[in-house]
Specification:
Blueprint: H1 3-21, E1 27-29, E2 44-51, E3 62-66, E4 75-78, E5 84-90, E6 96-100, E7 104-105, E8 123-127, E9 129-130, E10 132-139, E11 150-158, E12 171-174, E13 180-186, E14 189-195, E15 214-215, E16 227-229, E17 234-236, E18 239-240, E19 247-254, E20 263-271, E21 274-283, E22 290-295, E23 298-307, E24 313-316, E25 319-323, E26 328-337, E27 339-348, E28 367-372, E29 388-391, E30 398-404, E31 407-414, E32 420-428, E33 443-445, H2 446-449, E34 451-453, E35 458-468, E36 471-478, E37 489-495, E38 508-511, E39 517-523, E40 526-534, H3 543-546, H4 552-565, E41 568-571, E42 576-583
Parallel strand pairs: 2-8, 10-17, 10-18, 19-26, 27-35, 36-42
Antiparallel strand pairs: 1-8, 2-5, 3-4, 3-6, 7-9, 10-13, 11-12, 11-14, 14-15, 14-16, 19-22, 20-21, 20-23, 23-24, 23-25, 24-26, 27-30, 28-29, 28-31, 31-34, 32-33, 32-35, 36-39, 37-38, 37-40, 40-41
């Protein structure tokens, strides 16, 4: 393998690894007890099992272990005949997990929710779901089989009927000598099917690479037939291949360090004003030039990204282009430095006697997360994939979130310590004059307002404080006599005290199980209203979403409904409230 080819191969592997990090595992996890002495094992293991939707083991599935601190430490293993796996010899850090197996799919993580993190000693159940199949035969206008052509299943709506998230790649398969293709392992969704043009990742090299795609049954994108796949179903979709040359899009990637690293160039087709699916080309190390072939008429977003030393990346601003009856050449994508956020994680102990000798968070088992607000992101920002970053604090509590695209970001943190809670997230206001008592407030509330970033911007002076004294709540929502609890029931906790009414970190939500059970951890001491409420598709389904800066009106509505319902619960420092009973009335449902 030559040097440039090897670099392209490594770059592609990094691309797939980054995509895998964005998947969430549908899991159940056995929680560990706190260690009152604050000790932790030097090495250990994470064990678990991979099962299907019926609870049956998935043997020989691939399990991937990610390390937020250093992706180069990522590891993989396979399940045994009973679906069990073990990853041993691990350092006491935080980890992410995902799994895959032929014909199965993993439910993608909601971009509005944070990943699930694990530590040594955790036992995890990973749920895979049997995917659907789209199969059929591709024939020419003469009825002859079209052989070794790339066929793509393109998601147009997810299982909830919503457009797919930006950055999605189509699933490619090639036709065999009979012209038959079979695309399996498809998540529940609605798809269109296309054949011809270069494959999603630009690896194929056959007679159809430069053709304009033909959409099933034998049409352009505008009249393509849609195929709904549910519950592992199989659909047959035959395609009569139209042929015809497509267009080319070509240009160069330039800018600082552009020629010192491989550049990934992503082309995203724009349908109804939003990116639909991506394809990738490359500009190899120490060379100029990239190209896409077999491009149909339409609108596209084009963006380049390169990685260089210490895991840092550069990217271009997305370029919107329109292809109409001709090739587009001579494009230049100028890569620039991405943004970063640096700060410190602080630990604030408690003087309460009840909190004495409680295990404090361990920095190697703590992760700070930055995620872009996709709802308010500008259309061109959606083409940039750098909407998420994570960092593990150093031994001094310092953290750095790098490679962030322009946009509005919110911060959060995940830690393992039952009796601690997230107290504050503040930033020293840049350029503010020296503080004078009663005149100038030099601190900005990051938790409530987030951080707006531009290309190359360096944000410093962020302090995230974790405080000791957290409480927990376990209980059940009581169903009305003769009635069952509604589906999608969520329990909300909102602060009673007026001085805490605008403190977004005192707003909590959790899903209520079918049997009415619920649980909250890491609650700041104080008084709260408790409200059981049937949630809609647009309601916040996680703490991170409920606390988002754009959900101020939602928090106000929930607070007013909770005040009217007047179900109050109070938590003392380090108190564990168990067997709490909350009556549910249908009159306190949607508001």
């Amino acid at each position: 393998m030559s040097g440039p080819t090897r670099n392209l191969y490594k770059s592609s592997l990094r691309l797939f690894a980054n995509l895998a990090v964005l998947l969430v595992v549908s899991v159940s996890i056995v929680a560990q007890e706190d260690d009152p002495k604050g000790t932790a094992p030097r090495t250990g293991a994470i064990t678990g099992r991979v099962v299907n939707e019926n609870g049956q083991p998935v043997p020989h599935a691939s399990v991937y272990l990610g390390v937020p601190l250093d992706q180069m430490q990522s590891r993989s293993t396979s399940t045994d005949d009973n679906g069990n796996f073990q990853l041993g010899g691990l350092d006491p850090l935080v980890y992410t997990l995902s799994a895959s197996a032929p014909t199965y799919f993993l439910i993608p993580r909601d971009p509005e929710a944070l990943p699930t993190y694990y530590r040594l000693g955790d036992s995890v159940t990973i749920n895979l779901f049997k995917g659907g199949v789209i199969t059929g035969t591709v024939t020419s206008s003469k009825g002859e089989p079209v052989v070794q052509a790339s066929v793509r299943a393109i998601m147009v709506r997810d299982a909830d009927g919503k457009p797919p998230k930006p950055g999605r790649f189509a699933i490619d398969r090639q036709t065999d000598d009979r012209g038959v293709y079979r695309i399996y392992g498809l998540p529940n969704a609605t798809y269109i099917v296309a054949v011809g043009g270069r494959s999603t990742y630009g690896y194929s090299n056959n007679a159809y690479d430069s053709d304009v795609p033909t959409y099933a049954p034998s049409s352009t994108r505008d009249t393509a037939v849609e195929v709904a796949i549910r519950g592992g179903e199989e659909a047959t979709v035959d395609i009569r291949y139209r042929g015809g040359s497509g267009h080319a899009i070509s240009g160069i990637v330039s800018g600082p360090i552009a020629l010192n690293s491989n550049s990934n160039i992503t082309l995203a087709q724009i349908v109804n004003g939003a990116p639909q699916y991506n394809s990738v080309s490359f500009q190899p190390f120490n060379r100029k030039g990239f190209a896409f072939y077999g491009v149909a008429d339409g609108e596209y977003d084009l963006v380049a990204q390169s990685s260089f030393g210490r895991g840092e990346s550069i990217a271009s601003e997305p370029m919107r282009i329109t292809v109409k009856g001709a090739d587009i050449t001579g494009l230049e994508l100028v890569v620039r430095e991405l943004a970063s956020i640096k700060g410190r994680l602080a630990l604030q102990p408690s003087t309460a006697a009840e909190c004495k000798n409680k295990r404090q968070p361990l920095l190697p088992e703590t992760v700070v997360v930055a995620s872009r607000n996709e709802k308010s992101a500008q259309r061109d920002q959606l083409a940039l994939s750098n909407f998420f970053a994570q960092s593990v604090p150093s031994s001094t509590g310092d953290f750095a979130l790098i490679n962030l695209s322009p946009g509005q970001f919110r911060l959060n943190t995940r830690f393992f310590a039952k009796y601690w809670y997230l107290s504050s997230m503040i930033r020293e206001s840049p350029g503010a004059p020296p503080a004078r008592t009663g005149l100038v407030n030099r601190q900005a509330d990051v938790a409530r307002n987030g951080i707006n970033l531009k290309f190359g911007e360096r944000i410093n002076g962020v302090t995230i404080t974790l405080a000791a004294g957290a409480a927990s709540l376990r209980g059940r929502v009581q169903q009305p006599e003769g009635e069952s609890l509604p589906s999608r029931l969520y329990l909300y906790l909102v602060p009673v005290e007026k001085e805490n009414a605008e403190d977004v970190m005192r707003f909590f939500t959790t899903a209520v199980q079918a049997d009415g059970k619920f649980a909250f951890n890491n609650l700041p001491p104080g008084r709260y209203w408790a409200l059981a409420r049937q949630a809609s598709d647009t309601d916040p389904h996680s703490d991170a979403t409920l606390r988002a800066f754009e959900e101020g009106d939602t928090r106000l509505r929930i607070r007013r409904a909770a005040e009217a319902d007047r179900k109050e619960v109070e938590f003392k420092p380090c108190q564990n409230v168990v067997d709490y009973e909350l009556p549910f009335r249908f009159s306190s449902g949607k508001n």
